[in-house]
Amino acid sequence: MKVVVAGTGYVGLITGVVLAYIGNKVTCVDVDDKKIDLLKKGISPIYEQDLDKYLQLAKDNITFTTDNSCYKDSDITIIGVGTPERPDGSANLDYVYEVCNDIIKYATKDLVVVIKSTVPIGTNDEIEEYFANKRKDIKITVASNPEFLSQGTAIHDTLYASRIIVGALDEKTFATMRKLYAPLTKEPYNVPYLEMNRRSAEMVKYASNDFLALKISYINEIANLCSKVGASIDDVTKGMSYDKRIGSLFLKAGIGYGGSCFPKDTKALHWLSKINDCELTLVKDCIEINKKQKLILFNKLKEDFNNCLKGLKVTILGLSFKPMTDDLREAPSLVNIDMLLDYNASITVYDKIALEKVKEIYKDKLNYALTIDDAIKDSDAVLIMTEWEEIKNYDPINYKKYMAKPNVYDGRNCHDPKIMKEKGINYYSIGR
Ligand code: UDX
User: At 1, is the pLDDT very low, low, confident or very high (cuts 50, 70, 90)?
Assistant: First the structure.
């Protein structure tokens, strides 16, 4: 099938590469010349495990362009552009509609438009009506097909997806989608395939992401209580996980969730619930809990140093919102850096992958180190923000060896409190 994918961010690019890999002829289109130039050279514009390899494997089936005339003869056009949050928490659909307008301008025959971008419930219906009003000569139907990939494991999450959700209203559209995904529903992938109406499909995405965000906020609150009452969150979550109804995943306490999805999708669903006069107060609380959790290390540091952080040498280890990505969107590190700057601390940062991106934001306001050893040299306090393997495996003895004062605040529970104590390190972690 001839497939066009609009948007070459995490969702669009990974979708395009995987669909090309399983045998479709794919054109990826983006307004960003720089990204498209890199992709034409076979270079990935984002840091994502296995992406370069699959770009290479799929190269005979995939092309990249900024030319919107590519919409003219596609059987399926997939929209995977961003839906950033507006100041009121609602999703901004401007980029989605820009693509719709290009499709309206260039399409020459009936086609299915697939919405992969995360959009509020009812958007797919509105888009189909928009097409029907603007192009009466051809039939453009819309399918909702939300994306569940996680950054860092995106290729694997798409090939071996937990499920493929397709929302549509007519059999012809369902049949086209079945054909598109047929290879993934068979060996070796065996991805479960579910069909439903478009509004349900849109809701699956929000309900799933918000549930995972709730799970994280819940365990973070339990962790905070554990540290008050002398319990250990490690043992508590282990004990909980033996109950199959609870499971062990997404129960890692820390300094809160970041990234491009959970923060945005909790706010968008809360906004949607409010305008429908059915406020999701649990989701509202989750947003607040996460906001507070992100500053838990900073507040502890402030308390320990009697609110006086001026000139204090603070090192931040790990900057991306999670390991295996250079993505800084909603990363806890950024709000902590901002607070530390407000308090005139002297800040050194380290991250193997995300350092350059942080440099672009903060320029000469921070010191940038190229190794952990250098980052912590003469430091008064270390704040661990991301659980990169390199940080988890860092020998604690070095904190004692290199730091001016060995105060380690660990927001991702990378180290063993017992070992840290044995080594003479003042160690604070989450819920232990
Ligand atoms: C998430 C969803 O997992 C994915 O299904 C959806 O399509 C997009 O959003 P992603 O944002 O890539 O994926 O990262 P994820 O691994 O889910 O982590 C999100 C945030 O939650 C990170 O900041 C991570 O550190 C945090 N987290 C995750 C925890 O604090 N504790 C956990 O137990 C799990």
Answer: confident
